[in-house]
Design goal:
By secondary structure, the protein is α/β, with parallel strands linked by helices. It is built from 12 helices and 11 strands. The longest helix has 19 residues. This is ABC transporter substrate-binding protein.
């Protein structure tokens, strides 16, 4: 795996208790993988925090019958995930800081190319749609009519969104203005990070159009809120890292790897000026809408 560049070297730790020689306890390795070209301060912060969380988990690992795989790659970002999935390995991959769309596309490519890891999961980079919908209800203090526009990359979310009574439109090459006119009577547009719908060029137009229609936009990043979206949930580095560590700990304990998932832990950011223009009063319940890891909750 010469393409894999890790900030921190692979760790090999023995299990703590002794067994008879005929049944020796073997160590289990993990490696934090970053892209070869990525030596940013943010990536170093992610890797250092992950390392501190993972060391105590793997130091107590015992190899059981259900736990046959000997290497866990914790992969930071899409470029590193692309590198890992381009090579064959009998390994477990836990992806973090990569969007659901990119993760699914890379896993599909690896499956077709015969390089899919033995097992893989992810903590996606973008907010959980369910949490975004709860945030919208808190902001409006009543049941709200929500619309979402899905492209090819987000089509997999349609069943879950429709189950939550979201009006879903298929982008399908349609003109974005025509789609926005179709959802103009809803209260909220739930924006999902799909490059076929939301691009640098289209976001400004979308925000202006929804503003004219008195619609709030629940964005998918803090930057989008600063640009004119109403609000979003978001996760700090430590929130994602805590969830990754929980997934790793569950795998170590029982040999079962959790399915790919959206961030469990989050905070909220609101554009108060946009809220006022929509005649919304931002309550303390909205500002405090969050779910934090145990270590971050305080006494």
């Amino acid at each position: 795996m010469t393409l894999l560049i890790s900030i921190l070297a692979a760790l090999v730790l023995p299990a703590q208790a002794a067994r008879p020689a005929k049944d020796p306890i073997q160590g289990f390795r993990f490696q934090i993988v970053t892209a070869a070209s990525d030596d940013s301060a943010v990536t170093r912060r992610i890797a250092e925090d992950l390392y501190k969380r993972l060391v105590p988990i793997f130091s107590a690992f015992r190899t059981e019958l259900a736990q046959r795989r000997r290497m866990v790659y914790v992969v930071v970002g899409p470029a590193a995930l692309r590198e890992v999935t381009s090579k064959r390995c009998d390994c477990v991959v836990i992806s973090a800081f990569t969007s659901s769309q990119v993760y699914r596309a890379l896993m599909d490519k690896a499956a077709h190319g015969g390089t899919q890891p033995a097992a893989s999961t992810a903590v996606y980079a973008e907010p959980a749609p369910g949490d975004q919908l709860r945030l919208a209800a808190l902001l409006y203090r009543r049941p709200v009519r929500v619309a979402a526009i899905l492209g090819v990359d987000t089509a997999f979310l349609r069943p879950a969104l429709e189950a939550d009574k979201v009006a879903v439109l298929d982008a399908g090459g349609e003109d974005i203005n025509r789609l926005l006119n179709q959802v103009a009577q809803t209260d909220v547009l739930l924006a999902l990070p799909d490059s076929t719908v939301y691009s640098t060029e289209s976001i400004r137009n979308i925000l202006l159009s929804t503003y004219r229609h008195k619609q709030g936009v629940i964005g998918f990043s803090g930057d989008m809120v600063k640009a004119g979206a109403l609000a979003t949930t978001y996760s700090e580095i430590e929130d994602i890292d805590a969830q990754v560590a929980e997934i790793a700990a569950a795998y170590v304990a029982g040999g079962e790897l959790a399915p790919p998932q959206f961030p469990r832990y989050f905070r909220t950011i609101v554009n108060e000026g946009v809220a006022r223009s929509l005649d919304l009063t931002v309550s303390d319940a909205v500002r405090g809408f969050s779910r934090l890891p145990a270590a971050a909750r305080g006494p």
